[in-house]
Write a structure and sequence with these properties.
Layout (H helix, E strand, L loop, with lengths): L9 H22 L2 H7 L4 H10 L17 H14 L1 H16 L5 H9 L5 E3 L3 E8 L2 E8 L10 E10 L2 E2 L5 E6 L4 E2 L16 E9 L3 E2 L15 H29 L15 H33 L6 H28 L2 H4 L3 H12 L10 H9 L5 E4 L2 E4 L5
Parallel strand pairs: 1-4, 2-4
Antiparallel strand pairs: 2-3, 3-8, 4-5, 4-6, 6-9, 7-8, 10-11
Helix pairs in contact: 1-3, 1-4, 4-5, 4-7, 4-8, 5-7, 7-8, 7-9, 7-11, 8-9, 9-11, 9-12
Length: 402
């Protein structure tokens, strides 16, 4: 197992380096959009333009459709860097990036039509329910979903739905459908402690026609892309959250260091950086954050190696991915709570430092990183039955083998 994930081809190396340079060139301008993004509860038009300009929304889009087609470990530094700039912008960017992998499950021609019709910005949801009734040429979808992060900017949003033919449920693997967001009705408000700029509102849609060619069977083998796509959606979801968690943790620690090194506001007072207790706490959290980041890098490097061999993830690799994801978010929570406590008036008042803390605390509330899942991670590492597999965040026997 390699400990550091590096792009394995000259093409990937150059592609990642070029994208990181573009991202750095727009980082200041992108950061300037953070406050307004939060205020309007969606990314600003300028923020979207800058993400597109940097190319960071295309990290998982297959190469044959004009994307970067990166392996997970190659993409992480890009996702991480965007989240360091701003939590909401970083969170939405991971959604856009993930949508590039969802399209791997469409045939080339319909996928090409979608890409050619506009910028490939896609959303995806799973918290809700919908039905897909068979009609001539495709499906008629009706449903409602929650937590539609970034969907106000997306052109299509991939939603699961129960297929019905002649009123009867269709058996088989779950399907996702590319629903045009022009046919969606959004709910009001997104009143949360943080990640307000993601605009993760509820939405509904009624009798929306989706062509048969826009159905994606995401538990099957990907149709487009190369070996990098073999990890499937089960890999994609934790990876999205990892990019956010590592980036926002780094941002909070950097903000805390900058605040600690500022001249004191009271005559005769010392800087926080001159306080031994603060130094110890900061150093301890730096070690925890860097250790968590190293674990993520190691886990993704191992996964990249497996995918390059043309294989899917083993059960243990999935368990390690789940565990690393939860652990990294636990560290993000610890860092955010400490930074607020030690930030004094700086973190009490509205501003960049407080917003990063609030965004972190919102992100660590996600169901996918609830520490209850660690029970199943531990069970696998200790020797769960051979017929047990991961099905999303659920760990249990293969259906029919109970």
């Amino acid at each position: 197992m390699s400990l550091i994930s590096e792009p394995q081809t000259l093409e990937s190396t150059q592609s990642v380096a070029q994208t990181m340079r573009k991202l750095e060139s727009v980082a200041t301008a992108l950061a300037a959009e953070a406050a307004e993004t939060e205020a309007q509860q969606k990314l600003t038009d300028r923020a979207i333009e800058l993400l597109i300009e940097a190319g960071v929304t295309r990290v998982f889009l297959p190469k044959e459709l004009g994307g970067m087609g990166l392996f997970p470990g190659e993409a992480l530094p890009i996702l991480d860097r965007v989240a360091r700039i701003d939590g909401s912008i970083g969170w939405v960017n991971t959604i856009f990036a993930a949508g590039g992998h969802m399209i791997d499950y469409l045939e080339y021609e319909p996928a090409r039509e979608i890409i050619d019709s506009g910028e490939p910005l896609f959303g995806a949801v799973s918290n809700g329910a919908a039905t897909a009734v068979a009609v001539d040429g495709g499906w008629s979808l009706t449903g409602s979903y929650r937590y539609a992060s970034g969907s106000k900017h997306a052109r299509f949003i991939f939603t699961p739905a129960q297929k019905l033919v002649d009123g009867e449920p269709v058996q088989g693997p779950p399907a996702m459908f590319a629903v045009p967001t022009s046919e969606i009705s959004y709910g009001e408000g997104w009143d949360t402690i943080g990640l307000r700029g993601t605009g993760s509102v509820d939405f509904t849609f009624t009798d929306v026609f989706v062509p048969a060619a826009h159905e994606a069977v995401v538990l099957g083998a990907p149709i487009l892309g190369g070996d990098e796509a073999l990890g499937g959606v089960g890999l994609l979801i934790p990876l999205m959250h990892l990019g956010f968690a590592t980036g926002i943790t780094r941002r909070i620690l950097d903000d805390a260091a900058a605040n600690a090194n500022r001249p004191p506001s009271r005559p005769g007072a010392k800087r926080q950086a001159d306080n031994d207790r603060f130094r110890i706490e900061y150093a301890q959290l730096e070690m925890k954050a860097r250790a968590a980041r190293a674990l993520v890098t190691e886990v993704l490097a191992d996964i990249d190696d497996t995918l390059r061999e043309g294989c899917g993830l083993s059960r243990e690799q999935t368990s390690m991915l789940m565990g690393a994801n939860i652990h990294t978010h636990d560290i993000a929570r610890e860092v955010a709570e400490w930074a607020y406590r030690r930030g004094g008036g700086t973190t009490l008042r509205a501003g960049d430092a407080q917003r990063a803390i609030r965004d972190a605390l919102a992100g660590v509330q996600h169901f996918i990183v609830d520490d209850s899942h660690m029970s199943n991670v531990g069970w696998d590492l200790l020797g769960a039955p051979d017929n047990y597999i991961w099905m999303g965040p659920t760990f249990g026997p293969i259906p029919g083998t109970e």
